[in-house]
Specification:
Pdz3 Domain; 54% helix; two-stranded antiparallel ribbon; alpha+beta
């Protein structure tokens, strides 16, 4: 059951992404030949109007197949017959819908569970926070030049700036103060600590407050994705640290099972929502990267066309995307192999 829940959540993210392409295609009068969830052979399918709707065997991935998207077509409603800005809107809609989903789910979680604020309940003796004069009730509002809205952002900063001194701004009794903290290594936890203690208390806000913090939550996960990619490029992380669909579903299933056992179905639901927020924001960012075959790679060619006033050679563009697809499938194979290996090791 836990794996099934995880697959449903993962499939929902893909479906909503493809729904973005589908919606803008229809609004721009583009013929959609097939709208599918999953990959591989068709299990179920029906045709309504001009579009075939299908469910594929493998529950990972999906497609919105438009007339004239990857081949030439003389149909007046073909993708390649539409104006460049119409095509840009269709391609960009998938990632944008993922951001919208992450925002809406964040709003639901904030409304149900509140916000984990960056207000301290205490500081650790002998560490930088205490030595700088911070105390219970202080709220961290800025760290390393970045605004802080959640306590998680403090942990995120520490993760990506291990052992580095940092200038922080905190608020006490309506006044803001600035100081510099140098973390100390803690032998017991094996981590560098600034000496903050958060009680995990969650503040509650009204409708507009939840809207604001839902936007901050979306920005938080977008930042997490970019910081993780930076670590991958700079060598701070390796391909072995990546997780694909198999690993993600496995981890989600474990979190769901543990949440049900320890906290009940309501908190299991909230944890699945948090996973959906993270993955949806991640999917939006990854698809906007200028990599051939991804939405971002297609957008690069479309923006070049908009600037030049004419399209690039379709055969050359197709060749670039084909190379991108081959490389992406190679990466997917490596990541899936690692996911399966981790299950049995």
């Amino acid at each position: 059951m836990n794996i099934l829940i995880a697959i449903i959540v993962f499939s929902l993210l893909i479906l909503f992404h493809e729904l973005g392409h589908f919606t803008l295609a229809k609004l721009n009068g583009i013929r959609v030949n097939e709208f599918s969830l999953g990959l591989g052979p068709t299990i179920l399918g029906f045709t309504k109007g001009e579009t075939k709707y299908s469910l594929k065997l493998l529950p990972f991935g999906g497609a919105c197949m438009m007339e004239g998207e990857d081949e030439s077509s003389d149909d007046d409603r073909a993708f390649n017959k539409k104006g460049v800005w119409a095509r840009i809107s269709v391609v960009a809609a998938g990632p944008i819908f993922n951001f919208i989903m992450a925002f809406v789910f964040s709003f639901i979680v904030m409304s149900a569970a509140g916000v984990d604020t960056a207000t301290l309940i205490d500081v650790i003796d002998g560490y930088a926070a205490q030595e700088a004069g911070l105390q219970a009730g202080d709220t961290i509002v800025e760290m390393g030049g970045k605004n802080i809205h959640f306590y998680r952002e403090i942990s995120l900063y520490a993760t990506f700036h291990v052992g580095e001194p940092v200038e922080i701004t905190y608020e006490r009794d309506g006044q803001e103060y600035t100081t510099t903290l140098t973390p100390k290594y803690d032998e017991e936890s094996g981590r560098y600590l600034y000496g903050f203690i958060s009680g995990g208390d969650r503040a509650r806000f009204g409708f507009f407050g939840n809207v604001k913090y839902a936007f901050y939550e979306l920005c938080y996960y977008i930042d997490v994705t970019f910081q993780s990619l930076k670590m991958l490029v700079t060598g701070g992380a390796s391909v072995d640290d990546l997780s694909g669909p198999v690993g993600i579903v496995q981890n989600m299933g474990e979190v769901y099972e543990e949440s049900v056992a320890n906290d009940g179905y309501f908190y299991a639901f909230l944890n699945m929502m948090n996973w959906a927020i993270m993955l949806s924001a991640n999917l939006g960012v990854m698809n906007l990267l200028p990599i051939p075959a991804l939405d971002g790679g297609r957008l690069v060619f479309l923006f070049i066309e908009a600037i030049r006033g004419k399209a690039l050679d379709p055969e050359k563009e197709g060749m670039v995307h084909m190379i991108g697809i081959i490389l992406l499938f190679g990466l997917m194979f490596v990541v899936m192999f690692n996911d399966i290996r981790k299950i049995f090791v």
